[in-house]
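Re: duplicated header lines in exported structure tokens

Our pipeline writes sequence and tokens for each protein into one text file. With two proteins the header for the second block appears twice in some exports. Here is an export where it did not happen, for reference. First protein block:
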Amino acid sequence: MLISELAELTGVSARALRHYEERGLLAPARNSNGYREYAESDVTRVAQIRTMISAGLGTSTIQRYLDCARTGDHGTFLEMCPDLRAELDALARRLDAEQAELRAKRSRLDGLVSPPLR
């Protein structure tokens, strides 16, 4: 299938698909006209990439661990490949720290709009 067809099937822009290719996440074949030709399996691969991005993983991390991605009855999940657990734990710690900072900012904001109790 051509890039426009894959984009329509996955809901991902052609620009994003080209970016995934540049980052080594997709490797479409080329036909005699030079057009990208995607396989049916690329629909699943794009879903895996999107799921990993939405979980906060960057494309360089995804490139290292995309072969660990599996798609089953309940969606995309990652088998714990070597070193993956440590990276996911580090990401979770960063997210926890960001959430704590947001809660602190929210508390300071609330303090600005509410007069102190006497």
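Second protein block, exported in the same file:
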Amino acid sequence: MQKAIVVIVAMLSFAAPVLLTVASYSSGGFTPADDVKPRDLSGKILFFSASWCPACRHAEPAYQELRNAGYPIRKVDVDSNSSLAQKYGIRSIPQFVYVVDGNEKRRVSGSASASRLKRMYQGGW
């Protein structure tokens, strides 16, 4: 009898987090990143990079994907626009900074996928 109780408790311990996660995504409170429409967005992402930076070239496809889909995203060369890089405290590149009305809301350092960048528009990571 005790073994049966242990097995049931173990199964519930494993299943509960999985069920709660599934329920949170299907409850309607979260909109998948792919459902974001570019026209509904209030801010834009600034993609800080440089032509000589290998990591920036690696991050370029995500930038291009969002740009081609019509998302508000702007590429900023830190060498030719150092004042904007200073304004947002860019110390390493590549950096993606989500800005609403000139104020930084979120930031991702390094390379990021297009889906992760889309989540930034919604307030997620």
